[in-house]
Every structure is written in C-alpha cells, then in structure tokens.
C-alpha cells in the first residue's frame, strides 16, 4: 500500500476503524470471538456476527454502453425562403444531436470506474452487506475470488454476482477489515496479509504516539 505520512494530522474516524480492526484481528488470531458489534435494520443469517458498519462508496470497472446510438433524421419541409431556412436549421440540429449521441456512445463504451453504490456497509464474520436506496445486498466471502488493498480505506474486489463477474473499487473506513476477514477465510497466504502490508506503513507507530497503541503492536500478534 501507499506510504502513509500522518505526521501533524488529527486522529480521524478512519483511524478509529483501523484501530478497531486491529482489535478484531487480534481476537481472531488468538481464537476468540471479537466483542465488537453493530446493530442492523435487516435480519442476518443464523449465528452471523456483525462487527462494524459505516459509509461506503462502490465503483464498478465497466462500460456504460456498447458504443451504439440512434440517429435523428427528422426533417422539416417548406417552400420559399422561410422553408429553405427551416430545412437548413433542421439539418444542422440533427447533425449536432447525432454528433452528441455519437460522442456520448463512445464515452459510454470506455471501460472505466463508474458509480455503482452510494450507501452503507455492514461487515460481518461471513461477508458484508451493501445497503442503499434499492435495498440490501449480501456478499459472502465465497463469492469473492480476488481482493487487494489499493490504499488506506480502499480495496479492489473481484467476484461473482447474479449478473456475472465484476470488479469493484470499495472505499470505506472498514476496507482493511473487509480485506483481513476475506483473506483469513479464503486466502491466508495472500501477500498483503502475510507480510502485514495491508496496514499503512508507519501507522502502528503513529497511532501509538497518539495514545492509541493497536493490539497488533504486540510482537506475538504481528504477521
């Protein structure tokens, strides 16, 4: 992950989330069930434990269209000087509209990060839930085939959905928790989990200096 240079900045909610993540990871590695809990407005599966929740922003790596567009061929007929002017204006408007449609279609055909979800995330021991104005969408660890922390609070997820494979960029204070729980369950040999690089460089020392020594600062619990 990118080097974190927190010197001089205040303690943020993202730091509290990472500090809490360290507590959860410590409990899991020591064979205990973490004490952290959050309430939910939707039912969970039997025995499922909700650890944390907060705001989330999800973008999907995809195209918005296939590059096709419909042209406008409307034409105004008339006679005399006024009719010729009207016809010329109609042609110009049609050309402009068609050019705009073509440009939009070309832009839509580009594969890039596009907004997908703006809402809340709830992270549990079995996966996570995305909640927005359209409903509640559960994601189990087994539906996710690849994951990588790209930056502090940002994780890239590749998985299998009801509409096929997808790749998401998930931005949330709980990105590190999502990664650690998934990797612990699905890929314990993930390089970022094994070498501890899932944590921002220098963060443990900085948090300790702020008076919040993370549980992971205990040598026996480090990766």
Automatic annotation (TrEMBL):
<protein>
    <submittedName>
        <fullName>Uncharacterized protein</fullName>
    </submittedName>
</protein>
